[in-house]
Queue: 3 jobs
Job 1
Amino acid sequence: MKVLIVDDDIKSRKILCDLFKIKDIHTVEAESGKKALELISVEFKLCICDIKLPDISGTEVARQIS
């Protein structure tokens, strides 16, 4: 299982990644909406996305990947 973590705050990303790592779940990090959309060609089971990103809103990212 792969999980995409999208957040411009590095501390938040690291906390979420660490939590998934405890359960042996592979995570991929993106610091922006643009980066998330570049990575989305990889199949993810879950995407956790901050709503307030510096470039593209989290809701727009969700709309484009669904």
Job 2
Amino acid sequence: MEVTGKITKVLEKQSGVSKAEKEWTKLSFILETSEAYNNLYCFEVFGTEKVEQFEKYNKVGQEVKVDFNVSTNEWNGKYFTSLQAWRIFKAEAEQPAEVEATGDDLPF
């Protein structure tokens, strides 16, 4: 799925240790679209490398496109849904920078 909007807030990083004793880091950010209804999204970026990349290239007020997955998990009979961002790029760019730079878009 994809949505375009403006980053309005970046929440504090969260980190911890999983049951498998692996360290994890995640960061959440708020995106606001120009739609009349349902125009706020809270996305998660999960993993140390992805969090560092997000912080390096994205700022509050920036217009971005976000590719994301919707994930729902059950815990103690309650269900929690999260929007997991897996690609974020400037809204004015038609493709992510890494795809534009390759020059492999010719069909032959």
Job 3
Amino acid sequence: MREFIRHPADIPIEFRQINTPHEQRETLSNISQGGLAFHTKEALVVGTQIMIRIPLRQPAYEARARVAWCQALDGKFEVGVELLDPGDGFRSRMVEQICHIEHYKQEVLRTEGRQLSGQEAAMEWIGKFASTFSQDDTPDHTPTTDPEYRAH
């Protein structure tokens, strides 16, 4: 069973601590129904509430989250957060699917030399992989509750 997905290093995520204007831009490690993980230059304190934004498509995905864990990794930090709004689980599944489609689009360009539009990539990806991306696919754990997880 798929527990989370891995992403190319260029999928951006923006975050800021609640009640602060300073926003940081980093890269997403993985995303699941209950949370996500990303890399950052600075450690974040467990329990800190943050706002996250993934501007992959418009409108951008935005959610409130809480830092569940933070671990040093290769001179940076990997941070796992849990989504605080119960309705964000469904929205995160949509973002997860968009990330899969973007990754597919990049992979097709790299391996086949075909440059697909977003619509073309979505249609091909849905035809090939949507059946393995079912709504009943519930992870055993998420990156937010499993600090031993490492994205590779």
